[in-house]
């Protein structure tokens, strides 16, 4: 084999070797980056699951509070209806008409602090 053929084969082999090393380094970097992105995505998914659980818990608590408030309002309505019937029974019919007209304009405002 002639000397220049050895140079050509040696140069080509060196270029192929350098290409393989560079490709290996770049692929390794891409794999590491992909692994980091995968870990970030898993972390975000776990955060969403925790947030979802907390939100569901708060919704359940709000639903229970709403049901208790509804029961209280029903009891209050029954109590007011009962008292109104007693007032109608103990007064004349003219006065009960005034109560019925006035009762529609009475407003009760409730907050979480009080009435």
Write the layout of secondary structure elements.
Elements: H1 3-90, H2 93-103
Task: Describe the protein's architecture and organization.
This protein is mostly helical and 115 residues long. The protein has one domain (3-103). The chain contains two helices and no strands. It has helices at 3-90, 93-103. It is rod-shaped. It starts with a helix and ends in a 12-residue tail after the last helix. The mean pLDDT is 84.
Keywords:
86% helix; mainly alpha; single chain; 115 residues; 2 helices; rod-shaped
What's this entry about, in short?
With 115 residues, the protein is an all-alpha fold.
In terms of DSSP E residues, the strand content is: under 5%
User: Distance between termini?
Assistant: 106 Å
What low-confidence regions span 5 or more consecutive residues with pLDDT below 50?
none
Radius of gyration, in Å, reads: 41 Å
Q: What is the tally of beta strands?
A: 0
Give the ordered list of helices and strands.
HH
Q: Please summarize the sheet with the most strands.
A: none
Using the alpha-carbon principal axes, give the shape. rod-shaped
What is the structural class? mainly alpha
